[in-house]
Amino acid sequence: MPAAELNLLAINIATLSVLFFSANLLVVRADKNHTYFPLALSFIGIAIVISQPSLKVLAPALQLSTLTLALPALLIIAPCFWLYVKGLTHSAPWRFKKADARHLALPGLGLLISFITFLLPADIHYNLLGKGDTAILEQTSALFRNFIYGLLIITFVLVLGWIAQSAFYLIKIVKRLQRYRTQLKQVFASTEAKEIRWLSGLLLFVGVAWAIAAINLLLDNLFIASEYTQDIFQFVLLITVCFVATWGLRQKPGFEELFSTESVDVEYQASLAMDNNSSQVEKSENTSSQKYKRSALTAEMAKSIAKKIEVVMTSEHLYLDANLSLPKLAKHIHTSPNYISQTLNETLATNFFDYVNHKRILAAKKLLIESELTVLDIAMQVGFNSKSAFYSAFKKHTQLTPSSYKKQNLNQ
């Protein structure tokens, strides 16, 4: 076997090993958290699609059967990854619902075609998929021949449609992450550990892999050999799979700590769910008023809640808690999380994240001038979890870096 083929085989086997090992771990975890199951299915889909080089050498008997399943496997990768992201960013424990079934329409069509292909006579099945030769169809009846040609055309369209499908879900994931990160700021004072930033890097990386795969797919379907792109694709895919497997196994849903929090009332969970519903967010001209339209909070109640929040922040310095969240604050002042959120949004014209961090920055400004503590020590002392988060918040509230602020005020 040539060295180039050996390298390709080694990369392929390594990728398949990571995919199946990770899928197994994810399925085990899915028993407690269904979010991991779609990612496991996505991994299995990738494994089926890329398995041909390894099967050709290690298990030739399975090559044709696996190739027959390649179409539904290809079409299930993107929607399952979307469902995984949806689960990570959902405001309540995610479960597969009837509404999610629409994402499986194309994979279902691909599976139907695969099932029909399995029912074809063995010689026709082998020639069409194993050898890519349609000459054998000339020996069949016109009706049967036209039926097979119709299936081939639909298959070709679906394979090329995978390119558009992947781009569609890539855009959906980007939009979902934007809404999710905005929603985090309504609930948590520190969000950097929950923002799933690795997914943003992954989307860029996957975009490159997707482009290479799309080019390779087009070339293959136009009967142009492309070993170069195949090598690049396998290498990029191995890196991508290792990256996703590592982070996918570590990542927990961003709102997970709220799932079992008794202080998060049903009304507040409903408001979070509305923010996670893309159709409602996109159709609503005024998201805030839509979100609180059923609220019984009066102006007087809102003023009272605002006063309570100010007291616990200024007198008890609750903002110093690095893990402060809206449910924690609600429990502390014995008020509904939904009412606190509404008060912050409508009465104080801010969100929980910005309100708490503003208090932290005020404390940090005082320490910068009056103490000799390092910037990192000050950041930790006033409630930030990292230096980068402190710098970002400080610049947002003062338009200066901590060092520039200290220098400017010491010179006055």
From TrEMBL:
<dbReference type="InterPro" id="IPR018060">
    <property type="entry name" value="HTH_AraC"/>
</dbReference>
<feature type="domain" description="HTH araC/xylS-type">
    <location>
        <begin position="303"/>
        <end position="408"/>
    </location>
</feature>
<feature type="transmembrane region" description="Helical">
    <location>
        <begin position="6"/>
        <end position="28"/>
    </location>
</feature>
<feature type="transmembrane region" description="Helical">
    <location>
        <begin position="198"/>
        <end position="219"/>
    </location>
</feature>
<dbReference type="Pfam" id="PF12833">
    <property type="entry name" value="HTH_18"/>
</dbReference>
<feature type="transmembrane region" description="Helical">
    <location>
        <begin position="104"/>
        <end position="122"/>
    </location>
</feature>
<dbReference type="GO" id="GO:0043565">
    <property type="term" value="F:sequence-specific DNA binding"/>
</dbReference>
<keyword id="KW-0472">Membrane</keyword>
<keyword id="KW-0804">Transcription</keyword>
<dbReference type="GO" id="GO:0003700">
    <property type="term" value="F:DNA-binding transcription factor activity"/>
</dbReference>
<protein>
    <recommendedName>
        <fullName>HTH araC/xylS-type domain-containing protein</fullName>
    </recommendedName>
</protein>
<keyword id="KW-1133">Transmembrane helix</keyword>
<feature type="transmembrane region" description="Helical">
    <location>
        <begin position="231"/>
        <end position="249"/>
    </location>
</feature>
<feature type="transmembrane region" description="Helical">
    <location>
        <begin position="61"/>
        <end position="84"/>
    </location>
</feature>
<keyword id="KW-0812">Transmembrane</keyword>
<feature type="transmembrane region" description="Helical">
    <location>
        <begin position="147"/>
        <end position="171"/>
    </location>
</feature>
<keyword id="KW-0238">DNA-binding</keyword>
<keyword id="KW-0805">Transcription regulation</keyword>
<dbReference type="InterPro" id="IPR020449">
    <property type="entry name" value="Tscrpt_reg_AraC-type_HTH"/>
</dbReference>
<feature type="transmembrane region" description="Helical">
    <location>
        <begin position="35"/>
        <end position="55"/>
    </location>
</feature>
<dbReference type="InterPro" id="IPR009057">
    <property type="entry name" value="Homeodomain-like_sf"/>
</dbReference>
<dbReference type="InterPro" id="IPR018062">
    <property type="entry name" value="HTH_AraC-typ_CS"/>
</dbReference>
